[in-house]
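Quick review question:
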């Protein structure tokens, strides 16, 4: 056998893998590790998980109420119509009040002269105008004082000289007001100008009240009078005169007497007015006929009354304030008030150092704080105005909290 050159040699390679080749890309990403504190206990593994699941509704047990029971409940409710839900009302009332400061300014013009010593009365009207009566409360035979009327706003104060000491003042409208004086005259002002002047009583005009019925005035001559201003004059509609004989038996000394008894204070609430005499006589007068109904009260030196039907507050010299209704005693307050005013449904009292507010809505004291005060007035329903001993006039709002 001879040698031959082998040019080519093919050795078929055995295919080791006949699977289809595919190209895949994969990636791995690691989230940051979230660490949190977990309570652990040795040898105790606790799994805590939260899952919202729907609770299968429990099948209610059928409770059968006998028709007799239903009838009894209905009958009991019908019988007990007198269930007094009003008694629950106090729990819903916001009881405590707070005095919110609105404005304060000093009235330099008050500086008393030797011939005057008191802020006798104060009123506050629309457009933030205050009226202050300056003079003396004490008169021997005639007035030798230098009385003045101050009309004051935060920017200006106007002084109006008066002939005799004033005693009472009331706004008739936003622009008009009336001043009653110790000689029995009622003067109607428009701004600082006198519009009309009438001798209305034989004694000091102790109170003035304007309402749709007319002007109700009282006097220490014992008269309670309802009048009407016409364009030229003051027409009397009705007059009632209170004498010692009208006083309840426990107050009057003589069995009957036609001597007049001084009316010191009157306050109206709707069509009724409470009338108080200096010895402790108390009446409710119905307007416009001025029919009187006596309210029982022990003898006492009353100086002012407040009235917000059905509640009456009686302030007497050196005695605690008493709250009552025409039928019954309500409460004695821990203050002997020298100054008082009704502000909306609140009775406000001061003994010149402290202010106590009694709410007619909740029939209890709702404010009691130290506040120096020499004169006080209000503007319904919630504005309280007081003058302190440095002659600063402060306006406050009575607000609930
Ligand atoms: Zn005088």
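Suggested answer, residue by residue:
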């Amino acid at each position: 056998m001879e040698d031959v050159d082998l040019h080519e040699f093919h050795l078929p390679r055995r295919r080791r893998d006949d699977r289809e080749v595919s190209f895949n890309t994969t990636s791995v990403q690691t989230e940051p590790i979230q660490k949190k504190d977990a309570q652990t206990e040795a040898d105790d593994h606790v799994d805590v998980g939260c899952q919202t699941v729907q609770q299968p509704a429990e099948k209610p047990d059928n409770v059968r109420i006998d028709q007799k029971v239903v009838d009894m409940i209905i009958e009991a409710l019908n019988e007990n119509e007198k269930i007094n839900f009003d008694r629950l009302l106090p729990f819903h009332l916001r009881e405590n009040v707070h005095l919110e400061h609105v404005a304060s300014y000093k009235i330099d013009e008050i500086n008393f002269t030797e011939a005057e010593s008191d802020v006798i009365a104060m009123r506050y009207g629309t457009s933030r105008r205050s009226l202050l009566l300056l003079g003396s409360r004490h008169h021997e035979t005639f007035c030798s004082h230098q009385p003045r009327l101050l009309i004051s706003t935060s920017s200006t104060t106007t002084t109006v000289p008066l002939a005799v000491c004033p005693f009472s003042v009331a706004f008739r409208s936003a622009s008009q007001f009336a001043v009653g004086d110790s000689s029995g005259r009622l003067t109607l002002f428009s701004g600082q100008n006198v519009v009309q002047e009438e001798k209305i009583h034989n004694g000091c005009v102790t109170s003035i009240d304007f309402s749709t019925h007319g002007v109700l005035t009282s006097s220490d001559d014992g008269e309670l009078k309802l009048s009407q201003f016409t364009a030229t004059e003051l027409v009397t509609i009705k007059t009632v005169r209170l004498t010692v004989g009208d006083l309840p038996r426990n107050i009057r000394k003589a069995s009957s007497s036609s001597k007049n008894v001084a009316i010191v204070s009157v306050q109206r609430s709707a069509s009724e007015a409470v009338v108080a005499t200096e010895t402790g006589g108390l009446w409710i007068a119905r307007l416009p006929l001025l029919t009187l109904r006596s309210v029982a009260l022990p003898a006492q030196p009353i100086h002012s009354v407040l009235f917000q039907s059905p509640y009456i507050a009686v302030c007497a010299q050196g005695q605690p304030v008493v709250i009552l209704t025409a039928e019954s005693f309500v409460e004695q307050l821990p203050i002997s008030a020298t100054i008082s005013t009704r502000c909306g449904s609140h009775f406000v009292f001061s003994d010149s150092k402290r202010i106590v507010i009694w709410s007619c809505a909740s029939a209890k004291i709702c404010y009691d704080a130290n506040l120096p005060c020499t004169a006080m007035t209000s503007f319904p329903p919630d504005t309280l105005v007081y003058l302190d001993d440095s002659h600063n006039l402060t306006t406050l709002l009575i607000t609930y909290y």
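Why it works: The first helix runs from residue 67 to 79. Helices lie at 67-79, 89-92.
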